[in-house]
Every structure is written in C-alpha cells, then in structure tokens.
Design a protein that fits this description.
The complex is a heterodimer of chains A (309) and B (221).
Chain A: H1 11-14, H2 17-41, E1 55-56, H3 68-73, H4 86-89, E2 100-105, E3 111-114, H5 115-120, E4 125-132, E5 137-147, H6 148-155, E6 163-168, E7 185-189, H7 190-194, E8 199-204, E9 207-208, E10 218-220, E11 233-239, H8 246-250, E12 274-277, E13 284-285, H9 293-296
Chain B: H1 5-32, H2 39-68, H3 77-99, H4 104-113, H5 115-132, H6 136-142, H7 144-151, H8 154-168, H9 174-202
Helix pairs in contact in B: 1-2, 1-3, 2-3, 2-8, 2-9, 3-5, 4-5, 5-8, 6-7, 8-9
Classes of the chains: A alpha+beta (309), B mainly alpha (221).
C-alpha cells in the first residue's frame, strides 16, 4: 500500500546546492547592509537573516544537506515541547535577543560576552556536518559558527580545568516543566572542547540560527549524539570534576557522559547499528564516531567505549 | 428502544467508515507529505496509537452498555475489536516493511533483545486468535463460555500495549500514562464488578441468572 515512498522527493530536490549557494550569494549582497547596520545597534537578529560571507571549511563533508524545512521543523528541544514539531511552533517562548554568554569557572579571564561580540570573535565558517540523534535518525546540517577553541583561548583556562560544562537558558514561566532536571546542561572533556570539529553555531543554511535550533548560540559536536549539542547557551563553566549532565541524571544507565556515536554500543532499549537519514527511505549503517573517527578516535585510545558510553 | 436490524445496519456502516477515517487521513498525509520530516516514524507511531485506542474503545463497550442500558452496543464490539487488530497489523507492517525493510535478521534481534518490541509483538500475537475466532461459526463451535474465556485475553493485550508504549518513549511519559490510566480504570471496573458479584454470592443472595438484569443479548445476529 505504501510503495510510493521510495520515489519521494530527495532533500537535494527541495534545496539543490546551486539554488542554496545562489540564494546565499544573492542574500549576502542584499543583507550584508542590514546585518552590518543591525549588529552594532544590538537589534534583534531574526532567523532567516543572512550572516554574510562565510569562510568554507575543510571540515565540511560532501553529503547533501537535509532540507531546510526538515532541519527547522523536526527538533528535539524539550524546553519548547517534547514533540518534534513543538519547538518550531513555540518559538515565542524564547527571546534570543538581548543575549549574553557567561564563561566562568577555572579560567584566568572570566567574561560575559554579548552576542555581537561572539559573532565577531572569529571568522564565521560554514561547517556541513552529519548529525546523528540518539533516537536513530540523522541529518546533514550546514551550520554556521566558529570553533569553541577560539572562545576558550580568550578566557585562558587554568591548568586544573579538565571539563567544560554547558548550561542552556531556562525560564520556567514560559518553558516545559518537569521531564528533565532544568536547566539543560551538557559537558565535554577539555580536549574534546578544544577539538577543531567542536563548534559554537550561530546559524544554519547561511542564516541566523532559528529559535527551534537553539538560537542564538549552541554547541555542535558532530561525533557525538545530537543531545550533546546544548542549545541556547547562557553559561560555559570550566571545572575540574566531570559535570553530571541532564540526560545522565534522567537515565544513568541509558545516557553516559561521552555519548560518542557508536554503532557497536546499543542504547539499552534500541539498536544503534543503523539510522534513518531524514528524507531517505532505506536505513543507513551508523558510522563509528559518526564518520569522524579519523579526526577524533585518538582522543579515546585505550578507553573501553562500552564502559564509557 | 433498541434500533431495528436495519437501523443497526446503518449504524454499523457509519461506524465502519468512522473507524477507517484515521487510516484514510494517514494515507492522505503520506500522499500530501504532511506527516512531518520523518513520515515513517509518524506512521508507525500513529498506527500504534490507533491500535491502543481501538483496544480501549472495545473495552469501553461493556461498561457503556451496562450503565446506559443500550445493550445493542455489544453488537458493535466485534467490529471495533477487529479494527484494533487491523491497525495492529498495519503497525507491524510499517515496522517490518518501512522501518526495517524486511531485514529479518534485525527484526528477529529486535523482538528478542528489545523488551518494548518483545512486548508489542506478544500483544499482536495474542490478538491473532481473537481475530481468528471472531466470526459466528467460531463462536458457535467454541461455545459461548470457552469463546468468552479466550476473548478475555484482551485484558492482558491492553496491558501489554500500554507497556509497549511506555518503554518506547525516551523521557516524556505523559501520553503513555494517559493510556495506562484509562486501561487501569477499564480493567479496575471489571475487577470491581467481580468483587461485587463475589460478595453477593457470599451473602447467599446468589441465584444463577444472566448478568445483565435478566436480559439476554445475542452478540451476533
């Protein structure tokens, strides 16, 4: 009865790469003025606004990006609702401007950054990354952002700093109550945080990050399950002790601190061997470290990845 | 006043169309691509939820009949139960066909290793003999008492369905909780009736008599 699914539209047909790049060239010219004018004035930057010319990155993969529509309507952002369609419908619950990001803890120069400072902190790059959700689906997303390492350099982490904790914005008057222990937090080992693949994203598809994707600034760690990418960040804290993350608290036997994509270590309730790429019919085999093994595997040499899941 | 046979026929036809409506809407959603970014997941989820809903609707017939006095409602029960089975089979098919694409090795592993799939699969297996004995000749052949005993399997089936849903969700258990509470109420009601009957027997007031105020209702025409 459902034989027609395989011939369904591919993401590349919805957003061909020509159209996508063309559109950016066109928007770059017309919107550069607007962004240039808006940023110093600290005006609200709306989703959909172009982020101007972007540096290309050797870390981008050559796979076809998932359609803009899917990337922005199929989201896990529990603060805005637990159904995947909820976040896009509840964007009014989070105001991405004005916004500040506090970096504190074991650093020589603790600092609070305004979003405009963050945007100028390093050249914005486009990074086309795979995103694998712990639930067994995946996307390819053209993020815009800069390496977390460039931010860390500015605050000068002390030698005792072993971990970075990431804390998301939470406002109990407008956001989901219960479900998880709010605010949402995540963590990385400091070498993971400094890894060149680890990105602070401020946009996608060349445009300002939509609220449902974690506006105005979020973490992206492409070799780990998607939930590690904490959204709408307000605090980064450098610590000596390993942070206990929201998902570790919610299900210690199901979600570990590392949460590296690993087809050989199943979630206790479902297999992680395969994944459905959104927009595709057949499942794909999940790749070790989500296909980034060459770049990241050395950080985990000698570790039992079953134990440190 | 109970409906005449021809009125009941009309009611049944309308109910049949109504029961098909979710399937029709899902089909249309697939064609128009309005099921979201992950239509296979949406379809699997929706057919599963409709299976559970039809199980609970089926379980509502008897209390509704008892408290409203509309004893003819029982003549709609078979259709409702069969729809629960049909949605359950569709649910399994979306999993086997669309989700796993006939990867029998992965399916077998899932059924054995993933408790939520084990439980869901067991529920559907248990529903099969019920669907297979739903026609009049089977009821006659089994005899009312044995047929009824067999069909009480719907109680564990509904519980398994709730557990299947509960174990599947990642964290927000609101929805499975609602289904579980309704199931608990429907099964609890039956336990309570039993208890009432037992007390009546102990009090010595028991005379063998049809349960529903001496009104014998044929469950098939």
């Amino acid at each position: 009865m459902l034989i027609r699914r395989p011939t369904d539209i591919l993401p590349s047909e919805i957003t061909t790469s020509e159209l996508y790049h063309d559109r950016r060239r066109f928007l770059t010219a017309s919107a550069a003025l607007a962004v240039g004018a808006a940023l110093p004035a600290g005006l609200a930057r709306a989703a959909g606004q172009s982020l101007g010319p972007l540096a290309r990155s050797p870390y981008s993969i050559g796979e076809t990006p998932t359609s803009y529509k899917a990337v922005t309507t199929y989201n896990n952002f529990y603060e805005l609702g637990t159904d995947k369609a909820d976040p896009a419908e509840n964007t009014h619950r989070l105001k991405p401007a004005p916004w500040t990001l506090r970096v504190e803890g074991l650093v020589n120069k603790p600092r609070t950054f305004g979003i405009d400072e963050l945007l100028k902190l390093a050249p914005l790059e486009e990074r086309i990354y795979r995103m694998r959700c712990v639930e067994g689906w995946s996307m390819v997303i053209p993020w815009v952002g800069f390496p977390l390492a460039s931010l860390l350099k500015l605050v000068e982490p002390q030698g005792s700093a072993k971990y970075v904790e990431f804390v998301s914005h939470y406002d109990k008057s407008t956001m989901t109550r219960g479900v998880l222990d709010w605010p949402y937090n995540e963590g990385l080992r400091i070498d993971e945080a400094r890894h060149p693949l680890t990105l602070l994203a401020v946009g996608l598809y060349g445009e300002v990050l939509p609220v449902q994707n974690g506006a105005p600034i979020r973490l992206v760690v492409p070799w780990k399950y998607g939930f590690k990418g904490a959204k709408s960040l307000v605090t980064l804290r450098l610590t000596e002790k390993q942070p206990i993350t929201a998902w570790m608290k919610a299900g210690p036997s199901e979600y570990g601190f590392y949460s590296n994509v690993n087809p050989e270590v199943d979630h206790p309730r479902w297999s992680q061997a395969t994944e459905r790429r959104i927009g595709e019919f057949s499942k794909r085999k999940t790749l070790m470290f989500n296909g980034y093994a060459d770049q990241v595997a050395s950080m985990y040499t000698g570790m039992d990845l079953r134990r440190f899941f | 006043m109970p409906p005449t046979n021809s009125q009941l026929g009309t009611i049944k036809a309308a109910l049949f169309a109504l029961c098909l409506l979710p399937a029709f809407l899902l089909w249309r959603g697939l064609e128009m691509d309005t099921l979201g970014a992950n239509p296979i997941e949406a379809l699997t989820r929706a057919t599963g939820e409709w299976t559970l809903r039809f199980l609970l609707i089926t379980l509502t017939v008897t209390p509704l009949r008892k408290y409203s006095g509309w004893h003819w409602l029982v003549r709609l029960r078979r259709m409702l139960g069969l729809f629960a089975f049909a949605y359950g089979v569709t649910h399994l098919l979306t999993y086997v066909w669309l989700d796993q694409f006939f990867d029998w090795h992965a399916i077998a592993k899932d059924i054995l290793k993933r408790p939520f799939i084990t439980v869901g699969f067991a529920a559907l297996v248990l529903m099969t003999p019920l669907a297979a004995t739903s026609f009049n000749a089977a009821i006659r052949k089994l005899g009312g008492r044995r047929w009824q005993a067999l069909h009480r399997a719907i109680y564990p089936i509904a519980v398994l369905g709730c557990v299947h849903f509960w174990w599947l969700v990642k964290k927000d258990i609101t929805e499975p909780l609602i289904y579980a509470l309704i199931t608990a109420a429907l099964l609890g009601l039956r336990a309570w009736w039993r208890e009432q009957e037992r007390r009546k027997q102990l009090a010595g007031g028991y005379l063998p008599q049809p349960r529903f105020e001496s009104k014998v209702i044929k469950i098939f025409e």
